[in-house]
Amino acid sequence: MSKSINIVTSTAVPLNIENIDTDQIIPARFLKATSRDGFGKNLFRDWRYENDDEAQPKADFVLNNPTYSGQILVAAKNFGCGSSREHAAWSIKDAGFDVVISSFFADIFKNNALNNFILPVTVSDAFLAQIFKAIEADAKTTLEVNLPEQFVKISTTGEQESFDINSYKKTCLINGFDDIDYLINMKAEIEAYEAAR
Amino acid sequence: MAKTLFDKIWEKHVVKNIEGGPSVFYIDKHFIHEVTSPQAFKGLEKRGMQVFRPKQIVATPDHNVPTLNQHLPIKEELSRIQVQTLKENCEKFGIEMYGLGHPFQGIVHVIGPELGVTQPGMTMVCGDSHTSTHGAFGSIAFGIGTSEVEMVMATQCLMQSKPKLMRINVEGTLNAGVVSKDIILYIIALISASGATGYFVEFAGSAIRSLSMEARMTICNMSIEMGARGGMIAPDEVTFEYMKGRLFAPKGEEWEKAVAYWRTLPTDAGASFDKEIDIKAEDIEPMITYGTNPGMGIGVTGHVPALNEIDEQEKPSFEKSLHYMGFEPGAEIKGKKVDYVFIGSCTNSRIEDLRMVASFVKGKKKADDVEVWIVPGSKQVEKQAIEEGIDKIFEEAGFQLRQPGCSACLGMNEDKIPAGKYCISTSNRNFEGRQGAGARTLLASPLTAAAAAVTGVVTDVRELI
Ligand code: SF4
């Protein structure tokens, strides 16, 4: 599992559903683990299987469709709303996704994704529609998600759009730095702050 | 310069601003529970670190706990291990924990305020999105992920970017039968489940000021359901009155000093917000949701939107949602059959909620084919309900009073709604499968839920009061 992100060029899995909440990404009954591993197999569990049975995959769900694969998940607007469970980010990463593209992300999910070296890319509604269209037309369409240059490009159509990310987070992702390392190095300043209040 | 409530608290808690990036932001209080903390403790151990400020953390198990026979060991193995792991971690790292059976145990967002841990002007976090509840006291309170739980354990700080600020003004007087849950469901229906994403929201106006602390907590609790990072309400006499004498509230001279400071916190006249919304309290009627996100709410006398009222782009999600719920576009919601009634969760499980339900059902009986669960938010709420004789009223009505916990708010403990069944719930989320795989949730106020318990169908409570 990569602990840094630079340029990701890959086919993508299209999930054209709005308001995907973290209860769908990983249902509550799978939150009982005390470690961070192995959540990928329960990603979108209740959309993936009939009667919670791995022997009965739902044929119409995109993750069960061998036509689509890749390191990039493309979802409709307001992805990751609801519960703060970081298990949602762990399950997405564990299932092999390094990038999620949507036109709108819930705040807590966005932080959780970044803390797990998943790049949440916010594009315009119009560009998102173009991505879905391109993948629908040709499942082998690759997307280039270029973090250093901050753009997404659709290989088959050549269309591209730039995206925003704050420069601190960008440096962290490219270099594999964690917030926690940064904070631990600030201990003396934090203690000084406490003493001064 | 005129400042907002948020600005005043924010500025006091910035340890350092980073060029082109977030701020190092200091956290006063950290709540933890069994579900989102184990991996954080593991992370600390892997780094060979101690918890930096264990006295600033309060722990309680809530998500996984059974609500019957809490004196017995938890039957489900993974839940038992998670609750046990919390206990062991708290012992190892010197953190106060109110475990099962402790007189202070309960849902983390219910016990913080009732113990006086939650105070105006504070910064508070928890690995739980409904941490926004605590903002009702005039604090900056928000939910975080497990990596962030670990950061706060290690350094008492987080990296935070300042959010945009929104103010929602609710002016006027509420109609009879309309309570604070209806206000927040109305607001979310108005601006949608993502309408406040990227914002921290201050609720203001005469209708908000007229509310009790419990009712204010219900509103701030659900600010996350419109995407907001958190919600807050300026502290006032109602706040101070609620807090005075609580276990961890300041005492004596300290109290006077604290109140004097808290009085400086409300937003100054002329302070500016990135967005403001004005709402008339008179426009709000008892609300209920028909779909699978909290923004899909309507007045109880209204109808599910017809297909031609929905944007073309949103149709697939809308139809998927109605299919899950088993509702037709354009249908009336009133009169729909209900199988379960759940009154509980960090949104509506405080003593005031139970009193409201009790005063409505006194002398009435539940409908025959409805199951009714009342789950108090904490041991203290449970105790008070019994002292006031509320338990007897519920018993006579055929309602089941259970023991404190998150219960049927999320399908994680034993309290689940069976697939295909309809549940009127006072909780905060109607997502697919939230109350159990296949369960169909209709969010409403405790009053509207109680009315449905009595009639067995979705009911306009105003016809019964
Ligand atoms: S009652 Fe529900 S929303 Fe509140 S903390 Fe528990 S699970 Fe979360």
TrEMBL record, chain B:
Q: Where does [4Fe-4S] cluster bind?
A: 346, 406, 409
Q: Which keywords fit this entry according to its UniProt record? A: 4Fe-4S, Amino-acid biosynthesis, Branched-chain amino acid biosynthesis, Iron, Iron-sulfur, Leucine biosynthesis, Lyase, Metal-binding
* Annotated InterPro entries: 3-IsopropMal_deHydase_lsu, Acnase/IPM_dHydase_lsu_aba_1/3, Acoase/IPM_deHydtase_lsu_aba, Aconitase_4Fe-4S_BS, Aconitase_4Fe-4S_dom, IPM_dehydratase_rel_enz, IPMI_cat
Q: Per the UniProt entry, what are the Gene Ontology biological process annotations, in alphabetical order?
A: L-leucine biosynthetic process
Which pathway does it take part in?
A: Amino-acid biosynthesis; L-leucine biosynthesis; L-leucine from 3-methyl-2-oxobutanoate: step 2/4
- Which residues are in the Aconitase/3-isopropylmalate dehydratase large subunit alpha/beta/alpha domain? 7-456
Report which superkingdom the organism of origin falls in: Bacteria
Q: SUPFAM superfamilies from the xrefs?
A: Aconitase iron-sulfur domain
Q: Which Pfam families match?
A: Aconitase
Q: How is the cofactor bound?
A: Binds 1 [4Fe-4S] cluster per subunit.
Required co-factor(s) are:
[4Fe-4S] cluster
Q: Which GO terms describe its molecular function?
A: 3-isopropylmalate dehydratase activity; 4 iron, 4 sulfur cluster binding; metal ion binding
- What EC number(s) has UniProt assigned to this enzyme? 4.2.1.33
Q: What NCBIfam families does the annotation carry?
A: leuC, PRK05478.1, PRK12466.1
Function of the molecule: Catalyzes the isomerization between 2-isopropylmalate and 3-isopropylmalate, via the formation of 2-isopropylmaleate.
Which family does the similarity line name?
Answer: Belongs to the aconitase/IPM isomerase family. LeuC type 1 subfamily.
Q: Which HAMAP family match?
A: LeuC_type1
Known partners and oligomeric status: Heterodimer of LeuC and LeuD.
The entry's protein name is: 3-isopropylmalate dehydratase large subunit
- Species assigned in the record: Filimonas zeae
* Upper classification of the organism: Bacteria, Pseudomonadati, Bacteroidota, Chitinophagia, Chitinophagales
